[in-house]
Amino acid sequence: MHDIQKLKNIASQVRRDIVRMVHACQSGHPGGSLGCTDFLVALYFDAMKRKEGFDMTGKGEDAFYLSNGHISPVFYSVLAHAGYFDKAELATFRKLNSRLQGHPTTHEHLPGVRIASGSLGQGLSVAVGHAVGKKLDKDTNLVFSLHGDGELQEGQNWEAIMYASHNRVDNLIATIDYNGQQIDGPTSKVLSLGNLKTKFEAFDWKVLEVENGNDMEEILKVLDEAKSLTGKGQSICILLKTEMGYGVDYMMGTHAWHGKAPNDEQLAKALDQLEETLGDY
């Protein structure tokens, strides 16, 4: 049974981590990080099967790939709270010689990171490859991935989507952060994505939608459903309709905070809106 309050407490603390990390170095991407917080908390603390420790192979456990790597603040915070490394290391975000770079990298050997994601649009190809590898290894665990909607403007994604369908990669659950925003403005104005549901279905993927991607109960429900549909011949796509900047009122509903750090006054205002539930790092 899902412990909703526990997950909400973790999410609130992760959001505090995000704004503090980005403020401390005056660099980073708080908007998308805040929007994806509930999903990543639900994934790591409820939906995924995880082993003790970390190894790059992911054998005998579910694997996750972050493709939209600019939302590294939420990824690092979730990994730290999940026990992959000490939460105190969050204070080094984007600092010189830190393992917590602006986009996750593999050469830093940070536990929990399986792919460098400095260039967008590549994560789905890697996730598909790992899912195929699990099938070859007779590993029945799943592969999860997360992508930005604007990231789907890059063509390599559609090659991977076509490959997954052709090869019936049915142990893969790819989630799209469907917030309608990217660094230059609304996706509808920069380069419209059209009807993503119809597009994925045209490639013979099973598509599930979350109308409120910042509602923990809705997220858990769709993750349960997605897992129940694996192994049936289709890759799964979750269209997660989130709000960029969720939890901090002045960051919501705009692309302005895609890659912008709050000043001291703005940080204080954000922290007033985010409950400290597990203790600040």
From TrEMBL:
Pfam families: Transketolase_N. Its cofactor is thiamine diphosphate. The keyword Chloroplast does not apply. It comes from the Bacteria. Gene3D superfamilies: 3.40.50.970. Coiled coil: none annotated. Residues 9-270 form the Transketolase N-terminal domain. The keyword Metal-binding does not apply. Keywords: Thiamine pyrophosphate. Belongs to the transketolase family. This is Transketolase. It comes from Chryseobacterium indicum.
